[in-house]
């Protein structure tokens, strides 16, 4: 880790007796062997990424606001591999990327820019994630804990808490928590599988099949991660629905945690991540680099679309990267 990255890390976290505490969210990161292994894997990936040739054909200036995207965020890795220059002030940028770990954020000014990213993705609370999932996929994810009989998931409303747990209903709800049906996403070998689906331009790009033991269902760690294509895990209808989900929640770039019920085949989105860290550390290094290149190439295609739209429609500069493009095409 170079000196600048170390200074960034120190400014973003607080050292506590339990490990590290993320200042922006207040969440704890325990200092375990697993954490140290993941840190080394990230350093290895960062070194390899800096040696890789850039994807972009022209110079683009990107501003992340109100929070800087540190190198350990997937968005920064994508932009760096594209070859964009990251600037501090929105007025100096071609692309303004709304970037904030907070659950609720303000809209950003989109006027006069080539395009914006996640400008309309202002609410990634679990309540909104659940509501949109039910609207898009047809089966409600949220349940009323007072009347629901059976196992359900209790988790914090706020982004990035990773505090889900199974509870037996009916029960009285706890303030600040939401309740969702427990999705049976078990696969052979006593594992569960999450389908982390990456989004760029409001459209799905690829899938990280994230696997871990069933007794660690809610852990923020994976025993195994496989990079795969959309078509390997989703039907054409699934892909259309995931695209609609991203549009409805305003996610131009980021990741959706998709679960498939093994009995019904039904899809559910249980989390929307606009500041996800990635690619997952359990992924082999070669696949980390391939995934980042795929996302950088997707970003290049979206930039080309935005330039084309701007030549035809002057108002395209005020549109968001995903929803605005799809509405105009």
How does this model look, in words?
The protein has helices at 3-12, 33-51, 74-82, 126-137, 230-233, 236-249, 285-312, 323-328; strands at 13-16, 19-22, 28-30, 61-66, 85-86, 95-99, 115-117, 150-156, 165-169, 177-181, 186-187, 191-200, 203-213, 224-228, 253-260, 267-273. The protein is α+β, with helices and mostly antiparallel strands. The strands form four sheets. Strands 11, 12, 13, 14, 15 and 16 form a six-stranded antiparallel β-sheet that branches. Strands 5-4-6-7 form a four-stranded parallel β-sheet, with no helix packed on it. Strands 1-2-3 form a three-stranded antiparallel β-sheet. Strand 1 (13-16) and strand 2 (19-22) form a beta hairpin.
Secondary structure elements and their pairing?
Layout lengths: L2 H10 E4 L2 E4 L5 E3 L2 H19 L9 E6 L7 H9 L2 E2 L8 E5 L15 E3 L8 H12 L12 E7 L8 E5 L7 E5 L4 E2 L3 E10 L2 E11 L10 E5 L1 H4 L2 H14 L3 E8 L6 E7 L11 H28 L10 H6 L1
């Amino acid at each position: 880790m170079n000196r600048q990255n170390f200074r960034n890390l120190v400014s973003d976290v607080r050292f506590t007796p339990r490990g590290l505490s993320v200042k922006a969210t207040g969440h704890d990161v325990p200092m375990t062997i697993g954490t140290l292994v993941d840190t080394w894997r990230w350093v290895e990936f960062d070194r390899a990424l800096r040696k890789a040739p850039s994807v972009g054909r022209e110079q683009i200036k990107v501003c992340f606001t109100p929070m800087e995207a540190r190198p350990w965020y997937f968005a920064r890795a994508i932009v760096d591999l594209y070859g964009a220059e990251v600037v501090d002030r929105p007025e100096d940028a071609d692309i303004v990327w709304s970037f904030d770990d907070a659950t609720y954020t303000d809209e950003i000014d989109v006027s006069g820019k080539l395009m914006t990213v996640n400008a309309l993705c202002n609410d990634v609370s679990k309540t909104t994630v659940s509501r949109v999932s039910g609207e898009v996929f047809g089966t409600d994810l949220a349940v009323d804990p007072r009347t629901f009989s059976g196992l359900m998931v209790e988790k914090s409303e706020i982004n990035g808490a990773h505090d889900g747990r199974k509870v037996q209903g009916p029960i009285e709800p706890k303030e600040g928590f939401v309740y969702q049906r427990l999705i049976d996403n078990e696969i052979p070998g006593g594992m569960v599988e999450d389908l982390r689906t990456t989004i760029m331009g409001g459209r799905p790009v690829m899938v990280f099949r994230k696997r871990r033991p069933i007794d660690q269902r809610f852990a923020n760690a994976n025993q195994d991660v496989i990079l795969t294509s959309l078509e390997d895990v989703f039907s054409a209808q699934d892909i259309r629905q995931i695209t609609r989900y991203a549009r409805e929640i305003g996610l131009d770039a980021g990741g959706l945690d998709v679960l498939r019920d093994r009995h019904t085949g039904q899809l559910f989105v249980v989390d929307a991540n606009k500041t996800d860290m990635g690619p997952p550390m359990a992924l082999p290094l070669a696949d980390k680099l391939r995934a980042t290149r795929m996302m950088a190439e997707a970003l290049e295609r979206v930039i080309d679309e935005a330039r084309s739209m701007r030549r035809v429609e002057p108002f395209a500069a005020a549109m968001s990267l995903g929803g605005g493009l799809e509405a105009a095409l």
